[in-house]
């Protein structure tokens, strides 16, 4: 499962706003993942960003593989539901997403057009958010409960990519600890 | 977009344009059609963030530049700067000259980057690609297809280099950490100044080039000029913007000046007096508070000198000032007014041109500050000695006048906080713009994608801020148009994308 060659240059980006209740779930998940990785000795970069679109390109440039974690309001499940989104669903049509920036899909297409080296594999993890308009630190309890699951999914993906050291030589296989 | 739509207007319907995507309720246009299929009234609904005052209460005022810069993902540097200036006022300290220059350099860089991003990425597609072009082409990729890959590369590279100034001088580009009461956290070293000077010089070239792009692709197209000048996109309101002692546009500091729809000065005030001039109105259909001029009064959503509605951001700033403080921007300013029929300019879509004029000013100001020998003076802090009570800080954010107001106890712990964000200053005029564009463009016509986009253009020109959530997964959701009868029954949901 783990290739013998050098591990791929890999980044995990938590997106969101840590001052808007559940909007920050991507950031909190990234922080939890960083804690777990610290014990694993992996060369994975973990980043936080409140910006998407164009400004997001700077974070992804130069990496081969990327995991993106964000809040979502899909109403496909109760707050705290975790989705793993296939890339083509996550990168749909090309048009402006907000009035202030472009969508991730457009940003990636732009990067490609301009010859910026971008990840060839992207995995999107999203968590159904409840409250995203109240200025407060920390998620609601039902969303916070999803954090270990998200971090676990990210760890599994990193292992599948060979981005983690060989199992057995570190303590990377201890999911569920907080 | 509008792939599966039925176009013909039916009687008594409500059309919702929901352009913000991931989060329900984030900016939505509701259009009510009367029995004849004409637009009865159109509303733009913007949610307000809740709980900021409670969140701020009990925190140290000196933490506010960091906290407030995280509230909004769009203009963190504007909040950081407004909060920092409020701290100057709170502790009654004046930053040393070098600190003021460093702050203004960072701020001019931020405005330049933000304005450039808006022009090429957000506003540009409407004009460079065309307002009725298919949505799939009306984006930055369409712009690049029109202006060439090398221009795209130049835009991206320039943006990154301008941001590197903010990193060099301000710590972190995304959430700056430089602002302290009475100054900044670190000086600029002479070896960094050379690099900053080179970037600033390139920024001036880039801004000049951008003005040329606007000239070639917009002003030389009679259709676009006609659109800018059309009545559908015109409102005669008051205008607000910060000016220096010579009444020239200033983003960082000065007096807030207000001019009437005829262009005469009706107010000029410093930060502590803002409450004598700005009041907020509440409507039952929106959580947003609509700012108006207290001394003129709220007279409903109406144009004219009798109505207290005012506007902020590039169009308003150019109207509220007597000129620009740098030579190339001043030339551009004069040409702008000469072309658009004198002052004030009331055409909402002229915001795009005004934004490019301001981009040029920001770049020239960056260069002036970068070249200043005093920039590297190591004295960058005046230490506070007074017990704090109350402080107000005002800056011109890219999207308009931004006000931070804190009251504290003698230890500097916040007891009360009030923010008036830029988009609130434009809220009433945006509401009128959306209503007027819908009435002018939609009534009696088929609801086509191009027309819906032109209604969106009425508020995209202001670059309104919806507070947060600039990131989105998955990518973007389709725009939803909901058709309802007047009793609220959903007749049909149309999705574009």
SSE blueprint and pairings:
The complex is a heterodimer of chains A (178) and B (497).
Chain A: E1 10-15, H1 25-40, E2 45-49, H2 53-60, E3 65-72, E4 82-85, H3 87-90, H4 104-113, E5 121-128, H5 141-144, H6 147-160
Parallel strand pairs in A: 1-2, 1-3, 3-5
Antiparallel strand pairs in A: 4-5
Chain B: E1 13-18, E2 28-33, E3 39-45, H1 52-56, H2 64-71, H3 76-91, H4 97-129, H5 140-147, H6 149-170, E4 179-180, E5 183-184, H7 190-219, H8 222-229, E6 238-243, E7 255-259, E8 265-269, H9 274-277, E9 278-282, E10 289-293, E11 310-311, H10 314-320, H11 327-340, H12 351-371, E12 390-397, E13 400-408, E14 414-420, H13 422-442, H14 449-460, E15 479-485, E16 490-496
Parallel strand pairs in B: 6-11
Antiparallel strand pairs in B: 1-2, 1-15, 2-3, 4-5, 6-7, 7-8, 9-10, 12-13, 13-14, 15-16
Helix pairs in contact in B: 2-3, 4-5, 4-6, 4-7, 4-12, 5-6, 6-7, 7-12, 10-12, 11-12, 13-14
Textual characterization of the structure:
The complex is a heterodimer of chains A (178) and B (497). Chain A is an alpha/beta fold and 178 residues long. Chain A is 31% helix and 17% strand. Chain A has a domain of 106 residues: 3-Layer(aba) Sandwich (Rossmann fold), CATH 3.40.50. Chain A has a five-stranded mixed beta sheet with strand order 2-1-3-5-4, with helices on both faces. In chain A, β1, α1 and β2 form a beta-alpha-beta unit. In chain A, α2 crosses α4. The longest helix of chain B is centred in the first third of the chain and has 33 residues. Chain B is built from 14 helices and 16 strands. In chain B, the strands form five sheets. A five-stranded antiparallel beta sheet of chain B has the order 3-2-1-15-16. Chain B is globular. Chains A and B meet through α2, β3 and α4 of A and α1, α2, α4, α5 and α6 of B.
Number of helical stretches of at least 4 residues of chain A: 6
Rg estimate of chain B, integer Å: 22 Å
What is the C-level CATH assignment of the domain at 94-232 and 347-382 in chain B?
Mainly Alpha
Largest sheet of chain B: 5 strands, antiparallel
Poorly predicted sequence stretches spanning 5 or more consecutive residues of chain A: 90-100, 168-178
Principal-axes geometry of chain A comes out as: globular
CATH H-level homologous superfamily name of the domain at 94-232 and 347-382 in chain B = Cytochrome-c3 Hydrogenase, chain B
Mean pLDDT of chain B: 86
